[in-house]
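Shipment paperwork, digital attachment
Item: protein structure file
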Amino acid sequence: MTVEVENAGTEDEDNVYIELYDSDLDILVYSDEFDLGDYNDNDNDYRFVYTFNVPTDLDAGNYYVEAKVYFDGTYDSELFLVAVDACGNEGSSGSTDSGEDSLRITLDSNIEAMQGDTLTIPLVIENEGSSDISLDIEVSDITWANLDGLEYLKSLGADETTHAYIYLELEEGVYGKHDLVVTINDEQKIVSLDFGDEPVETSGFDFGELNWLWIVIDIVLILVALALLVGLARKK
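Attachment content:
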């Protein structure tokens, strides 16, 4: 199993590490800590390779290993498909396999989450095999947005690349981190989005109103000064 991590941000990330976990496959492993340069650095990626044996008493079927990448006090996670046949052999695994060894999926990490707008999540899908592959994409586990549509080809020819797009209409007042599950054929990918912290309402004077107050006071002082001047002139 191979996990590839790439920093697409503008800041360096230090003390990053990877966790792999699945109870059925008896996997719980951590990588060594590593540092990543920013997106423009030659040292902005890391590859973690882990070899494991499938338990002999495990039933045939599809299993999902959860990979978490910890950085800067938080983490991103993704599910890795592992297909086990009747003989207990590992069929396929990895962050880019979708249940068919020839299908490679890349999620664009440069997603800007904006409140009150339509959010577009782009995917790049590559067929590295020698035969056509039918595509089926579903999106689930969304409570903070409405699915506005999916755009993708139903079939991808051999050695071809296509783009798929997920359109979401965001709800008002969405803050913090939210996930959605994207299923492409047999593979599930977890997309994590950060909408930032909820703004804190401040109490006290409105400086705009305070400026108007000072203007009114200035006008009153001017009128009082004019009245005094008129009074003095009359006395003379």
